[in-house]
Amino acid sequence: MISKVIAEKGLPAWAQAAPLALVFALFFLVPLLLTVVVSFWNYTEYEILPDLTARNYIEAFEGCARRLLAASPELCTTLKTYLTTLRISLTVWLITLVLGFAIAYFLAFHVRSLTVQIVLFLICTIPFWTSNVIRMISWIPLLGRNGLINQALIKMHAVNEPVEWLLFSDFAVILAFVHLYTLFMIVPICNSMMRIDRSLLEAAYDAGATGWQTLTNVVIPLSKPGIVIGSIFVLTIVMGDFVTVGVMGGQQIASVGKMINTQMGALQFPPAAAHAVILLATVLTIVWGLTRLVDIRKEL
Amino acid sequence: MKDLVRKSLSRRGVIKGAGAVAAAVLGPDAITGFPAVHSQAPKVLRYLGTAVNQSADIAKKVKEDTGIIIEYIPVTTDDVTRRVITQPNSYDVVDTEYFSLKKLIPSGNMLAMDGKKIKNFDKITPVFTKGELPSGKKIGDQGTAPRKVMFLEGENSTKFANSPTQWATLIPTVYNADTLGIRPDLIKRPISQWKELLNPEFKGKAAILNIPSIGIMDAAMVVESMGEYKYPDKGNMTKEELDRTIKILTEAKKVGQFRAFWKDFNESVNLMASGETVIQSMWSPAVTAVKSKGIPCVYQPLVEGYRAWAAGFALSKGIKGTAKADLAYEFVNWFLDGWAGAYLNRQGYYSAVLETAKAKMEPYEWAFWMEGKPAEKDIQAPDGTLLEKAGAKRDGGSYDDRMGAVACWNAVMDENDYMVKKWNEFIAA
Prior knowledge:
The complex is a heterodimer. Chain A is an all-alpha fold. Helices cover 74% and strands 1% of the residues of chain A. Chain A has one domain (76-299): MetI-like (MetI-like fold, Orthogonal Bundle). Chain A contains 16 helices and two strands. Chain A starts with a helix and ends with a helix. By secondary structure, chain B is an alpha/beta fold. Helix content of chain B is 39%, strand content 17%. Chain B has helices at residues 2-12, 18-32, 56-66, 77-86, 101-107, 126-129, 146-149, 184-187, 212-226, 239-254, 265-273, 284-291, 323-335, 339-345, 354-359, 363-369, 399-404, 416-428; strands spanning 44-50, 69-75, 93-97, 110-111, 113-114, 167-168, 171-178, 180-182, 206-209, 258-262, 279-281, 298-300, 306-316, 350-351, 379-380, 386-388, 406-409. In chain B, the strands form four sheets. In chain B, strands 1, 2, 3, 4, 7, 13, 14 and 17 form an eight-stranded mixed β-sheet that branches. The longest helix of chain B has 16 residues, at 239-254. The radius of gyration of chain B is 22 Å and the shape is globular. Chain B starts with a helix and ends with a helix. Chains A and B meet through helix 5 and helix 14 of A and helix 4, helix 5, strand 10, helix 11 and helix 18 of B.
């Protein structure tokens, strides 16, 4: 069977793919499989017990239906946490998409010199020049109660009391995410835009299309692969993040990642694994939905 | 050096029976600093613990005195536990907290420490062995008090003994009594009770720590102080008690009482130093760190008492019966010998063997840190930064005042599983 496949595709092709496939299998597929297996195991304070139990999944959604159907309906912890994470992810996605698209458009169509393009790209990577921790901590002197922005607002008599929602809030979390991950939108979208044949834009202009019509009928459809790839980057990263949400939200905003982190801290590996599987399923569904919009393989 | 040897010789007379034999074997090597002739391989010990306890000064001094090279493996409190249970061969010596023992001991991955090989075993403060001060005064016993988990019934037993035995789970290194940190310059009035943490006066300016097993204890101190409920044992709550505690916390969170929760030492320093919070759960060295920036910060003693914690050394089962084990005992003996104890005391922590630490401290330092007396001279941290001017007193007073007022210890509860679930609910609320 294998020899037949090799005969069809040629040995060199397989040999070229093998190293990456091996790394992928060893360090991604196997751990992932183990996670799924462990999510069905039982556990005590200090050990995990090989078993086949749905306990971890049942407990994850325990009371959800009862609370939703109660006289005063409310969400259970798990649903509430997923909704918060989804809400933040979608907001960040929307903002990075608009910003990323605009910046990519500027870089691809308005900047003519390659040197300037490269310099501007490098400027976009500035947020990544320092470590995550330093970056997070340095938001405090800017956004904090006694931070630069509040001091400026008070000196300008725009407000009497310091504005509290600048830090340790949804706003702060979203700001930090946008600050970091817009780049992941810019790069793939810009890449798609650079490949658009300029004569198409001229043709649209000659055919009497307005700027807006050119954008919606030519540029956006042809940038779709970039948009989808950028969206996958941003959504998957933000869905799984717990460090940024923790630091910028003052640990007061729940995220799925944080929930898993807390359970790992308490040595509850099986329920943590179950939540990881649920999160993975959620993210995969989103990615699947996105790839329905565009067939990335065909477009690339 | 010579002085040291003489002291250890006279001390040796105190230890009786087999203990003396063991000490005689280990003693000279541990004290003189000359590597034993038979040791060929480099004397390296892998030391697993939290970064807060892993000082470069201590590693340097150990090397000077004994030739042992300490390789620190700094991880978080939770990760220490995880490492011990899942990778017992990845370290030689572990420095962990007593409350983790309920999880660690049943795993069988830790070696019981043989008291007969520890020179100062009999001089370990009774806070650990009997749950009382050297003066004989009983101290708070709620939670995982070290006394309850200090000894094992036998070398290979996984059952905690009720009274002292030869086999210790951990050889204690450092402990302290924790309380709330406040910014007196921003609060501008005396604070004397735990309930002030949830006082609406400090709405949006309070913080609690987001390490469930410690945060829940601080919460319990607050709930009792508010007069909402009196726990039979704060360190071992029932499900109903957990529900009640988390409900009070959740209500406070919903009206915006908390500015943030912190998990990391540096986060707590930043929150306090920047004025984002004015009252919060805090650790002693964090208060020191805020102070050393020239910002007023008080580790406020409160009438309901302190929440205490303790840490100690154990050996990995991976080095049982090897030369590494001897090396580890040599290191632990060095640790109890005074220099490290003095170093810890000067940071505001407490050392397990008081008299050896006292011998390595200046009398005015001992008077300030341990006796609660006004400082005769300026008090400096081990790194030389100025901590207190002459005339200042330590927050909370003497060792007896502070450790004597311990109300409960950090704990792992029987309902730990449920507690973590409720804590996640609180964070999500």
